[in-house]
Protein: DUF1173 domain-containing protein
Organism: Candidatus Pantoea gossypiicola
Amino acid sequence: MLPLGLFSGFPDLVLPEDVRHRLERSFCRELLDWRRGMKVVIIAETEPPETSFRQIDERDQPSSCSTVIDVALMTVIPRFIPLDSGYEGAVEEKLWQEKRAFIKPLRYDGEEDVFADFVLKDVPDGDALPMEVFGMNSPEYLQRRQVKTAHYEAEYGPGRWWYWDAAAKPDMPAFPCV
């Protein structure tokens, strides 16, 4: 069963074993985030609910149950902005605290191979400044970092984008001035 709360009339969701295995394999980070108490949005495709009746306090009470076909999870902050890492959460929190204007591009927003973690919208002399958080040091990740760096340097120019090498420096650099 998937535990959902505060949904009066929402059917119980039965999670078949194969769907649970796919969920654990595809969304292990989001499941860990949920277990740590973070907000996680769930999108579930289900069969139509089936309603049956149960005797509760000598009265027939309807009970609905639906089988999950597929499911996806997405970690979000309390403002429902999706996150890919705790470092991104720290950047978003600081942007919010400083009342900066920004957007959070999502993978499905476009067809670009490179998209920023955030885009700062309140910078002088330009309508957007990409922001990137580099949080790992694996060989594959470092290769991807080179691709992103080359893209930002070519697209925006040297020094016209912000980044934080969180894997090497725990202190986040200051944001560009408004």
